[in-house]
Amino acid sequence: MRPGLFIHLMSIETRKLFSYRVDFWVTTVVNMVVTLIVFWYLWEAMFQESGASTIGGWSLPGILTYSVLISLSGRVIRGGDLQMAISTDIYEGSLSRFLLYPSRYFFFKYAQQAGAVLPELLQSIAMGALIVLVYGIPTEVPVTATSLLMALPTILIGHLLFFMLSVIPQLVAFWAENVWSLSVLLRFITMLLGGGMLPLSLFPEWAQSILAWMPFIYLYDFPARVAMGLVTQAQWLEGMLLSLLWCGITALLAVPFWRRGELQYTGVGI
Amino acid sequence: MIKVQNLRKVFRVHKREPGLTSSIRALFRREWIEKVAVSGSTFSVAEGEIVGLIGANGAGKTTLLKMLSGIIHPTSGEARVLGSIPWKRENSFRTQIALIMGQKAQLWWDLPAADCFLLLREIYRIPEDRYRKNLGRLISMLNIGNEMNVQIRRLSLGERMKMELIAALLHSPRVVFLDEPTIGLDLTTQRAIRDFILEYRAELSPAMLLTSHYMEDIQRLCKRIIILREGSIVYDGSLRRVIEEYAPYKEILVHLRRGIGAVPDAEDLSRLGDVVECSETQVKIRAPRDRIAEAANELLQRFSVADLSIDEPEIGDTIERIMAGRPEEPR
To answer: In angstroms, rounded to a whole number, what is the distance separating the alpha carbons of residues B269 and B303?
Structure first.
């Protein structure tokens, strides 16, 4: 691990993303507006239909705040949607050049992924500030500057965890001719089981107790609850340690896949 | 610097039958075939040597380079490059080698060359003063101008290839693998790159293994060649010797004075060798080396000769015949 090289690689990716100015603003605005409209109408309709003031312990402003936070932090956690980068390297033979460099391949790829954090973070902060200006912060939701600051490291660890989780499905590219479906599946599973579609507290009790032992919770649900001030300091620390532990476990699980897989690598063409 | 012993690579390839039915069947059961890309190669390359690796497409040249640069693992056999096993990819090995692929861009397309080089400095941990010195020398050798600050994707093929060379050599590798470095380039750029490779070799004496389909590259750069056919080495030796060994003939070209003296007859002349061309004004014969003087003498005596020349056969033709598996001449 060489910090100088990591920062250099990261800054290249960041500069690249900033240089695509049109893409930068279009994805920010369109993504946010569409997501917010969907969440807004969906939850409002559900609350109206049920006639209840809370659903599963969530009020309408509370669940809308959760949805906004998921949407804003999710972009950072997925880090520029580079989850096909490794399989593309394998299929197109670009992996070859990284194998020639005196540094680890995953170090390069994670630095590249991390380079997307800053642009995504800035976009999310800008959109978040705009939403606060227009709608304000609901009084029944304890979002504070401290809770938002506490959420930041959980989001960054979530970013690392998302990268680690996407490594194994992508390494299947050493054997399979297309892993796009696996990537889509991973995204769907992480969104559903990580609380990216709806709060995990709305799941049945038995499902919640299983999900608590899985890594997905640390991708969306945990950072959003931290940002909303719904997590104690002890829970916050425990959550971060557990998510780091999951990063380690997924890294260890990826090792045999990489070792077996790279024996199959042809570098494209004979 | 490079030692290869019985190196072999077999690829397992999915057999694809045409048609929709076969595609559906392949969802449940696949047939695999084994393709031998490199079959038991043994050779070595010394410091300062440029060895040409020649063969038709699919002969195994690039596969061999990929194994020796550590990108892929062999099926069996041994190789040592600078004392290391390449596919173990130790950092001490990777900092001393370079692979340049003419057909595959290795630089970052969205970055200007100057940024790519800075990143490579960081990757290879090249000290600042050595980086500046190396970069300056390579820029002047390749005559690079203002293109340093242009995005790689916006450079011409020739300019890009020059940048690829600089990028690969910035860390002063002791072993350089060049896979078709002049492919697709115009003649001027090809020449510039050949001159550069020679100059670089003269300065730093690295071991170089070069593949190319251009005979000009091979003739200008390599004293020694290795010819591969279907994964096997069929020739390893000097470029000059390949002619003596595989083309045991010379070509006699005779220009005749029109209307003066005897008219040549192809059937009659075939006693001297293979008649390649026979007209009223010109005769071209491939005669065995040991009978070349005798054949020339007879032609001079029988015909009114305006000019006569004896040439070695084209080296490219000879190599092409070896690659195609027809090394022997008719006579």
So the answer is: 12
- CA B89, CA B99: separation in Å to the nearest integer? 14
- Return the pLDDT at A270: 46
- A269 inside 8 A of chain B by CB: yes
Domain with CATH 3.40.50.300 in chain B: 2-242
Q: Say what the ipTM of the complex is.
A: 0.81
Length of chain A in residues, anyone? 270
* Those residues with Cβ within 8 angstroms of residue A59's Cβ, 6 or more apart along the chain or in another chain: A53, A140
Nearest chain B Cα to A8, which residue?
B119
- Mutation target for A interface from B64, B97, B104: give the one with most A CBs within 10 A: B104
Token match 């479906």: residue? A181
What would the CATH number be for the domain defined by B2-242? 3.40.50.300
pLDDT digits (tens, 9 = 90+) for A168-190: 999 999 988 888 888 889 989 99
Q: Residue A18 forms beta bridges with which residues?
A: none
CA distances from B328 to B230, B244, B246 (A): 18, 11, 6
Over range B88-110, report the average pLDDT. Answer: 89
Task: Chain B: give the shortest CA distance to residue A99, in Å.
Answer: 6
Q: Which residue in chain A is spatially nearest to B35 when comparing CA positions?
A: A270
**Band of residue A251 on the pLDDT scale cut at 50, 70, 90:** very high
Nearest to A83 by CA among A55, A43, A110, A48: A110
CATH 3.30.70.980 domain range(s) in chain B: 249-311
Residues of A in contact with B118 (CB under 8 A): 8
Alpha helices for chain B (secondary structure H): 20-28, 61-68, 91-94, 113-124, 128-142, 157-169, 187-204, 215-221, 239-246, 266-269, 292-302, 315-324
- Count residue pairs from A and B with Cβ separation < 8 A: 59
| DSSP secondary structure, chain A, as one string | --HHHHHHHHHHHHHHHHH-HHHHHHHHHHHHHHHHHHHHHHHHHHHHHH--SEETTEEHHHHHHHHHHHHHHHHHHHTTT-TTHHHHHHHHTTHHHHHHSSS-HHHHHHHHHHTTHHHHHHHHHHHHHHHHHHH---TTS---HHHHHHHHHHHHHHHHHHHHHHHHHHHGGGT-S--HHHHHHHHHHHHHHTTSSS-GGGS-HHHHHHHTTSGGGGTTHHHHHHHTT-S-HHHHHHHHHHHHHHHHHHHHHHHHHHHHHHHH---S--
Global pTM?
Answer: 0.82
CA distances from B42 to B4, B77, B92, B155 (A): 5, 9, 24, 39
Amino acid identity for residue B224 in this structure: R
Domain B249-311, CATH number (from 3.30.70.980, 3.30.70.20, 3.30.310.50, 3.40.50.1820): 3.30.70.980
Site of tokens 């920062």: A7
